Structures are given as C-alpha cells and as structure tokens.
C-alpha cells in the first residue's frame, strides 16, 4: 500500500494509485533537473575557475584563488553526481552549503533582501530534500545498494 493511501484519506481515493505510481518518477525528475541546473550554473565557473575569486573574497573566503575553483567544482561536479544519483547525499550537502552562502551573500552582504536570495533559497530547500532522502529509487546509489 502506498503512503498516499496509508497516511491520509484522499478526496478521490482512486487517485492514490496514480500518485503512488508517479512518486518515484517525480522524485527522479526533480533530482535530474536540479543536477542539470547546477551543471549549467557551474559551467561558467569551471571554464574560468578563478573568475569568482574576488567575489568569494568579498564574502570573507580567503584566498579567493582557492575557494573560487572549489565553488566551481561543487556546483558543476555536484550537479553531475545529482543527475546520476551517485553519492547523492554528500553532493547535496556540499552544494547546499554553497547555496546557503549565496543566500547570505544576496540577502545580507549585498543587501538585496529576499528578492535577491529567492532562487538560492528555493534551490537550498530542494538540495536539503536530497541531502536527507538520498537519490531515490532511480539512482546509481540505489542500484549499487549503498548510500552514505
């Protein structure tokens, strides 16, 4: 029995089986889309790994020449790992940390408030989900039968 019919009563009970059948697909789609977004966002940093050095130093991360490539790698390679569902939890935790720093940067350091940090907040919430739940049924982690 699916958690859709176990945990709550649906107004239209027949939808429980539909929701249950789409649950795994929806989770995998969200993981893959999140990974692709991170890859796309990290690509510019990977091709210019020291380009964000000044920005990371303005947030107090010294030396920028060290933290800029780490930022690039976290976004780009973390995105690849999320797409695959491989080492999903560690990849999500690392990229979650990066995004929480961007929330701080936009909201506090640069004074943009919620509107400046909105995207980072949303992606942080999604990454928190994967950090807690892992890659899901359709992931390399599940296929090999091991997760961190």
From TrEMBL:
Coiled coil: none annotated. Pfam families: DoxX (PF07681). InterPro entries: DoxX, DoxX-like_oxidoreductase. Its main location: membrane. Keywords: Cell membrane, Membrane, Transmembrane, Transmembrane helix. It comes from the Bacteria. It is a multi-pass membrane protein. It is found in: Cell membrane. Signal peptide: none annotated. The chain crosses the membrane at residues 12-40, 60-84, 91-109, 121-140. Belongs to the DoxX family. This is DoxX family protein.
């Amino acid at each position: 029995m699916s958690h859709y019919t176990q945990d709550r009563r649906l107004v239209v009970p027949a939808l429980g089986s539909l929701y249950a059948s789409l649950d795994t697909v929806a989770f995998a789609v969200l993981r893959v889309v999140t990974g692709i977004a991170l890859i796309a966002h990290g690509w510019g940093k990977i091709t210019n790994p020291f380009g964000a050095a000044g920005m990371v130093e303005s947030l107090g991360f010294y030396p920028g020449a060290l933290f800029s490539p780490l930022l690039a790698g976290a976004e780009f390679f973390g995105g690849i790992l999320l797409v695959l569902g491989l080492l999903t939890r560690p990849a999500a935790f690392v990229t979650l940390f990066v995004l929480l720093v961007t929330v701080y940067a936009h909201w506090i350091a640069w004074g943009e408030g919620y509107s400046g940090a909105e995207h980072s907040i949303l992606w942080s919430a999604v990454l928190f989900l994967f950090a807690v739940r892992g890659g899901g049924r359709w992931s390399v982690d599940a296929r090999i039968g091991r997760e961190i």
